[in-house]
Automatic annotation (TrEMBL):
Organism of this sequence: Roseiarcus fermentans
Gene Ontology molecular function terms on file: ATP binding; ATP hydrolysis activity; phosphate transmembrane transporter activity
InterPro entries: AAA+_ATPase, ABC_transporter-like_ATP-bd, P-loop_NTPase, PstB-like
One Pfam family in the UniProt entry: ABC_tran
ABC transporter domain segment(s): 34-275
Lineage: superkingdom: Bacteria
NCBIfam families per record: 3a0107s01c2
Entry's Gene Ontology BP terms: phosphate ion transmembrane transport
A GO CC term attached to the entry: membrane
Entry keyword set: ATP-binding, Cell inner membrane, Cell membrane, Membrane, Nucleotide-binding, Phosphate transport, Translocase, Transport
Protein name as it appears in the record: Phosphate ABC transporter ATP-binding protein (PhoT family)
Length: 280
């Protein structure tokens, strides 16, 4: 990796140049955990991302917003290489984590998905017990002992704010949990891998308001230890949870900046219109 990603745009450039201003807003003062550079993505002939450049700050929450079909989910799918399972999907450009390519052919995809976990829109528990849902991955992949596995299950469920609700019924089927609990179980399953980055794709859209609030609180807490990226259609949720917001439109990343700046003083007309509810 070159070190051009780590630095702010050169101060010798004209500071009123809008590209310079946007560059500063996009590159926050936090170290970038992930750097996305000029990324294009194609589903067969359909281009879904067009020249996306974005830094994801470490141990911060980054919210991806924008109207339906603008490429938010596609970007998450790129970051943990889900597209790799589909031969007609392809990406160009670069995405780096800690300076190393996520997209190169040499990347160990199992390890990558361990380091970059993903929580989907609706809960996707495995048809097995609560305990096994969490234990399955780390026990097999890290060859954990029985006790270490049990400890990891407790640690993960505690961190996902579910332990007190399920500790007396760990052998029950996960499918018997409420939908909100199932979503926290899926978060616990992701945490059990001890990832560095967690991607959430509209994590509360299938939940009732109370369950949604619990997930929001969880996201806010997780950034103490993890880098979080989440997709949301809910502007209030973006304001409550995100430190940084990136606005997408028709596959392009139009504008990114601190949540305060993006909501109080968006620079681009399309961002203003979207925030104001004029379209989308
Ligand atoms: N499997 C696919 N095959 C072809 N085109 C796809 C596929 N999945 C998504 N697309 C297209 O790619 C574009 C981006 O889709 P994506 O799901 O990333 O948008 P999004 O912003 O997450 O939308 P939403 O907010 O509705 O979830 C859209 O035009 C969509 O129709």
């Amino acid at each position: 990796m070159t070190n051009r990603h780590a630095a702010l745009p050169s101060p010798s450039r004209n500071p009123i140049d809008p590209d310079f201003v946007q560059g500063v807003a996009n590159r926050t003062t936090h170290r970038a955990k992930i750097v996305i550079e000029d990324l294009d993505f194609f589903y067969g002939p359909t281009q879904a991302l067009d020249g996306v450049t974005l830094d994801i700050p470490e141990k911060q929450v980054t919210g991806l917003i924008g109207p339906s079909g603008c490429g938010k989910t596609t970007l998450l799918r790129v970051l943990n290489r889900l597209y790799d399972m589909y031969p007609d999907e392809r990406v160009t450009g670069e995405a780096l984590m800690d300076g190393e390519s996520i997209l190169g052919p040499e990347v160990d995809l199992n390890l990558l998905r361990w380091r970059i976990g993903m929580v989907f829109q609706g809960p996707t528990p495995f048809p097995m017990s609560i305990f096994e849902n969490i234990a399955l991955g780390p026990r097999d992949l890290e060859s954990l002992s029985r006790q270490d596995t049990a400890d990891r299950v407790e640690e993960s469920l505690t961190r996902a704010a579910l332990w007190s609700e399920v500790k007396d019924r760990l052998s029950s089927q996960a499918g018997a949990l409420s939908i909100g609990q199932q979503q926290r179980l899926c978060i616990a399953r992701t945490l059990a891998a001890r990832p560095e980055v967690i991607l959430f794709d509209e994590p509360t859209s299938a939940l009732d308001p109370i369950s949604g609030q619990k997930i929001e609180a969880l996201i806010a807490d997780l950034k103490r230890d993890f880098t979080v990226v989440f997709v949301t259609h809910n502007m209030e949720q973006a304001q409550r949870c995100a430190d940084k917001v990136a606005f997408f439109y028709l596959g392009e990343m139009i504008e990114a900046g601190s949540t305060g700046q993006m909501f109080d003083a968006p620079r681009q007309r399309r961002t203003q219109d979207y925030m104001a509810g004029t379209f989308g």
